[in-house]
């Protein structure tokens, strides 16, 4: 079960590796904004959704993502009411977006909570699993 903390994690990591917080921050402020407007994958062309991602140990407000016809159109801290909300910790987020763990596996392992429309949340996570596999987020040194 994700833990609910409000303090930002330690941003320093040994041996020059980026901290989990740095990786998380880079994902939402650099990686995702760089693909706004692009078709995520051909087989996701029919995907339209509003989701919220709450990273419990980041100390940040939840991220709101909007996908319209398979294109990421919005990555912000505020947005329209989401169809579902994913609640997870930093480690789980990094595992999922780097394709080390599928969103479905993390859900069934109780590492991700889905709030709101759970069925829709599972459908969306299944669709996005292919995106994470094809385009894994690979944190770089110094991120």
Structure characterization notes:
This protein has 143 residues and is an alpha+beta fold. It has one domain (14-134): SCP2 sterol-binding domain (Nonspecific Lipid-transfer Protein, Chain A, 2-Layer Sandwich), CATH 3.30.1050. The chain has helices at residues 20-31, 90-97, 103-108, 118-134, and strands at residues 49-55, 63-68, 71-76, 84-88, 112-116. It has a five-stranded mixed β-sheet with strand order 3-2-1-4-5. A hairpin with a 7-residue loop joins strand 1 and strand 2. Helix 1 (20-31) packs across helix 2. It is globular, with a radius of gyration of 14 Å.
Lay out the secondary structure.
Elements: H1 20-31, E1 49-55, E2 63-68, E3 71-76, E4 84-88, H2 90-97, H3 103-108, E5 112-116, H4 118-134
Parallel strand pairs: 1-4
Antiparallel strand pairs: 1-2, 2-3, 4-5
Summed up:
The protein has one domain (14-134): Nonspecific Lipid-transfer Protein, Chain A (2-Layer Sandwich), CATH 3.30.1050.10. Helices cover 30% and strands 20% of the residues.
At CATH's second level, what is the architecture?
2-Layer Sandwich
Taken from the alpha-carbon principal axes, the silhouette is globular
CATH-assigned fold name: Nonspecific Lipid-transfer Protein, Chain A
Question: CATH H-level name... which superfamily?
Answer: SCP2 sterol-binding domain
Order of strands, main sheet, comes to 3-2-1-4-5
Residue share in helix: 25-40%
The tally of beta strands, per DSSP, is 5
Main β-sheet description: 5 strands, mixed
Rg over CA atoms, rounded to whole Å, is 14 Å
In N-to-C order, the SSE pattern is HEEEEHHEH
> How many separate domains?
1
As residue ranges, the low-confidence spans are 1-16
The top level CATH class name: Alpha Beta
> What percent strand?
15-25%
Number of helices: 4
Class based on secondary structure composition and strand pairing: alpha+beta
Terminal Cα separation, in Å? 28 Å
Q: Provide the residue-averaged pLDDT.
A: 87
